[in-house]
Amino acid sequence: MHQLYRASLLVSAVCFCLNTTVHAQAPTASIGSVTASPTSASTSALQTAVEAAAVARSAHTGDTDSVSPAVTDLVRDIDVSATEFQRFVRDTTGRPLPLFGYNLFTGGRTFPSLQNVPVPSDYVIGPGDEIALRIWGVVEADTSLRVDRNGQVAIPRVGVVNVAGLKSSQLEDALRSQVGKYLKNFQLNATMGRLRSIQVFVVGQARKPGAYTVSSLSSLVSVLFESGGPAAGGSMRKVQLKRNGQVISTIDLYKFIAEGDKSADTYLLPGDVIVIPPAGPRVAMIGALGTPAIYELSRPEEPISQVLSYGGGMLSLTTPHKVLIERIDATRAKAPRSVVERALDAKGLRSTLKDGDVVTLFKISPAFSNAVTLRGNVAAPLRYSYKSGMRVADLIPERDALIQADYYTRKNIMVQYESGDKVSAARVASEIKNLLEEINWDYAAIERIDPNDVRTQLIPFNLGKAIKDKDPAHNLQLQPGDVITIFGVKDLPVPVGKRTQFVRLSGEVKVPGFYQIQPGETLKQLIARAGGMTEQAYPYATELTREKTRAQQQANLDRAIRRLESDIAGQALTTVQNANNAESAAAVQAQVAAQKQLLARMQSLKASGRIALELKPERPEYPDLPLEDGDSITIPVRPGFVSVFGAVLAENAFIHRPDASVEDYLERAGLLREADVDAALIIRADGSVEGNTAHRRWFGSGGFMSRELQPGDAIFVPEKFDRRSAYTQFIQGAKDWTAIFYQFGLGAAAIKTIRD
């Protein structure tokens, strides 16, 4: 409680200091300097007070970790620079609006010295100025004269001359007249040298009020920039310059910003006072205008057109038919707000705005009065002009309008900037495909807004009958605002009979090449259409690859790799935790490394998309499998070898022998000690795979090792994961059980000792 009480006293003291700081006079600044802002000081002091209170509160509650976030959030939420009207607009509209024109004085600008600039002709000479005087002729003189506090200069052999109050344009004639009283036959030139510094005052609702020492060439506007301009509560419309208690000039900074009007700007004299009065009536302008902001009025009421001109006027996208004015009626009890609707015509622009008004301008409607929209699988998806009685066929008069522009781009790229010798046969073969996005001639749709129910209607029609046959039942009459969508065969999948499909046939056929297939055409029919197979063809090893199958195989392979990766990680963790000595741990680490190496090899595999036809070697007859777009069929030459690879001494291709079995080929290749024969595989030439298991016999009828192989088959023998011998595994198990029994015996002995 004592700490909380001390913090409260500190807050009270800081608040007292804030009040005295606001009314304290700012210190005198040098040329181009800016005094410290009371607002900044207030903010810093306020933050210090809040932090002190928060520290005391946290000490009282015992929660010291949450002090900094609470203090930061509290200080962030206090917007000391916003005016009450800005907060009012933000609360009512949900949008924070800036004060128009005040950003002109922000940004930390630095202003150059005004000493090395030409002196204007109407500059008034005063004490502290220097005059560079040159005389030649019968007498030569080059001297610098300083105007004393009495406004006089002393010219050698001439005497004292009063120059205070003269304009710079009058100086040379005045000095020539005085010197001419004493000299004849001479020439004279007089210019301004170093200029004096003057002290002026900036008071009122200024961002940084105080006394400023500036160049005598400074004007009202330049000092406003040095002082930071009006504060948030200061006026931009009636900044006054007072001299000897009289108002010398009043400048409207809105005219300076919008029009560059500096006619009211005046050069300053020592002792001048710049007064920034409180801001006058303000209105908020939001919505579809160039500069949404809060504007200050120059008088109690101003026309809407005048206020709009400050921010650049209306945009072309602003609707002239409607503008809303939210107004506070101060004459009634509780000052209720009302909404006034105006049109931005000649009469509406003359309507006046008052203090506290919030004006909302709206955008024009994006709806088109005479347009229909064509989109989808077309050459130019655009909005087109609607004409009375317009129909679908009028919107698409030519078939070329249904060919997308990127078709020609893809077509041109095939030979762009290339000579014939750079185009490979493999590339030409891969690029023979349907480049055209084909049209769905059976279905298209019109989207139309029902004005009665204000909902969308979908009107389907047959595009072919509408354009080709001009059938009135499908060549529908359009209305303004309709959206006509043309679909392609890929947008809405159509039956295969209505698609253009290409397949590639290569290898041992009479006429290999690319063929456009008919709906439901099979491999056997396609080969017959290509002239049949050659005498060297090996139909049992026919390769049929399909892109759809490849994608599915790759997805399955990726899924299996992820599962294997998870299993290896889990198994490695379990095995390491169960290892009871350093030797076992090292063996486990080696096993895990081998498994990870196998996983890396699997991750490099890519699916081929091959479909196993499962043909009989003695009578290979193709199944009635319909072909699809993009299929690739290769009929190889009959090979004369069988491949063996994996954990064998000689990975090689061995001559095929009709009576040779798997065991014969493995004996020729030579098995390694690490070979896992139980997991061996036979990869048939037709794409199928046969595996072995540990429960099958190596020898005998029906066994894996006694199976016959066909030309083009391959045998794969993987390596074992656990390469320990049976003896080593037995000894390791015996050690583990011995350790368990030993520990059990020690425990039993200990229990017996305790009981005794």
Protein described:
The protein is of the alpha+beta class and 756 residues long. Helices cover 30% and strands 22% of the residues. The chain contains 18 helices and 32 strands. Helix 15 (547-578) packs antiparallel against helix 16. The longest helix has 32 residues, at 547-578. The model is unreliable at 1-80 and 694-701 (pLDDT under 50).
Structure characteristics:
disordered N terminus, 18 helices, 5-stranded mixed sheet, alpha+beta, 756 residues
- Widest sheet, order of strands: 7-6-10-8-9
Overall outline:
elongated
Gyration radius, rounded: 48 Å
C-alpha end-to-end distance: 64 Å
The total of helices stands at 18
Largest sheet: 5 strands, mixed
Strand portion, in percent?
15-25%
Number of strands: 32
* Low-confidence sequence ranges: 1-80, 694-701
| Chain-averaged pLDDT | 77
Instruction: Bin the helical content.
Output: 25-40%
Which structural class matches the secondary elements? alpha+beta
Summarize the topology.
Elements: H1 2-23, H2 38-61, H3 67-77, H4 84-93, E1 130-137, E2 141-146, E3 152-155, E4 159-162, H5 168-179, E5 186-192, E6 197-204, E7 210-215, H6 220-226, E8 239-243, E9 246-251, H7 253-259, E10 273-276, E11 282-287, E12 293-296, E13 302-303, H8 304-310, E14 318-328, E15 337-342, H9 346-349, E16 352-353, E17 358-363, E18 371-376, E19 382-385, H10 392-395, H11 405-413, H12 425-431, E20 439-450, E21 455-461, H13 463-467, E22 483-488, E23 502-507, E24 513-516, H14 523-529, E25 543-545, H15 547-578, H16 582-603, E26 610-611, E27 632-635, E28 641-646, E29 652-655, H17 662-669, E30 681-683, E31 689-691, E32 714-717, H18 726-755
Parallel strand pairs: 6-10, 11-17, 18-22, 23-27, 28-32
Antiparallel strand pairs: 1-2, 1-5, 3-4, 6-7, 8-9, 8-10, 11-12, 13-16, 14-15, 14-17, 18-19, 20-21, 20-22, 23-24, 25-26, 25-27, 28-29, 30-31, 30-32
